[in-house]
Design a protein that fits this description.
About 5% of the residues lie in helices and about 50% in strands. The protein contains 1 helix and 8 strands.
Length: about 150
């Protein structure tokens, strides 16, 4: 017995016609050299005491390439004596067009809610909370290169 398709009612009048346009040709490449990564900037890191996320802004300074993901190394140091608390490398998926900035996040490294970023705007009320500083290094970036560029 044949399976009958159900009629789908839409709010659009008439027949829908497919859009005829050539698909963009995109090449995806991972870059790890410092000159290409130098045009990508990370700023405004924040992590309040009880937050599950670490947020930061990334600016894509490339003129034609879209950043598709970043591989970042986070290093955490105490404010009081500059001891290293933790270090980790994470890959963050994103979609940052040329010349634009996006807010990105990753899950927090502090599972016990003991530490907070020294620059956070939400100051903890607990005197047992420990402030820390973070350095973020871009290890590699995956970019989408548009090969249909018009000169």
């Amino acid at each position: 017995m044949p399976v009958l398709a159900q009629r789908v009612a839409t709010l659009r009048p008439g027949h829908l016609e497919p859009m005829l346009r050539a698909p963009e040709s995109i090449t995806v490449a991972t870059i790890a050299d410092s000159t290409a990564i130098g045009s990508i900037a990370v700023s405004a890191y924040d992590k309040p005491l009880r937050s599950l996320r670490e947020t930061f802004f990334v600016t894509n300074g490339n003129e034609s390439d879209t950043v598709a993901s970043l591989r970042l190394t986070f290093t955490y140091h105490t404010v009081a004596d500059s001891l290293m608390l933790h270090r980790r490398t994470v890959t963050v998926p994103c979609e940052i067009p040329p010349g634009q900035t996006r807010q990105l996040y990753t899950t927090a490294w502090d599972r016990q809610y003991t530490y907070y970023s020294a620059g956070t705007r939400i100051q903890p009320s607990s005197n047992k909370a420990i402030p820390y500083l973070t350095t973020i290094e871009i290890v590699a970036a995956t970019v989408k290169k548009n090969t249909n560029q018009q000169n």
